[in-house]
Design brief:
By secondary structure, this protein is α+β, with helices and mostly antiparallel strands. It is globular, with a radius of gyration of 13 Å. The chain is built from 4 helices and 4 strands. Strands 2-1-3-4 form a 4-stranded mixed sheet, with helices on both faces.
Length: about 120
């Protein structure tokens, strides 16, 4: 089994739970702390494609930074620009096996990559 990349924020309980679920099943996990190593625009476009193009699920619309931007969540380029400028706006955790990606909300959703 190839490693799953977990876009992870260790301060987030859902992210910690997703990591624990994967590790408990013996899945090799590469943790990427996306706040310390943010994704660039091209990486975000590729990630969105692996999320089945659901870019609106990628943005945390209740965050003050998002509201201040007065951006449109239905516009993929606005979502990408917002996350590049403010990485904490990206939903977490996200598990990515290189072919598919899933948002771990709830954390058990990351296990769909094992199916």
């Amino acid at each position: 089994m190839s490693a799953i990349t977990l876009l992870h924020n260790p301060r987030c309980s859902k992210s910690r739970q997703a990591l624990a679920l994967l590790e408990a099943r013996g899945v090799p996990v590469e943790v990427r702390r996306y706040l310390e190593a943010p994704l660039d625009a091209d990486e975000l476009r590729a990630l969105i494609a692996r999320l089945d193009g659901d870019h609106s699920a990628l943005i945390r619309t209740k965050e003050p930074e998002w509201k201040a931007l007065d951006a449109d969540a239905s516009d993929v380029e606005q979502v990408i620009s917002a996350i590049v400028a403010h990485p904490r706006l990206m939903e977490r955790p996200i598990a990515d096996d290189g072919r598919r990606a899933v948002i771990g909300r709830p954390p058990e959703d990351v296990l769909r990559l094992l199916e």
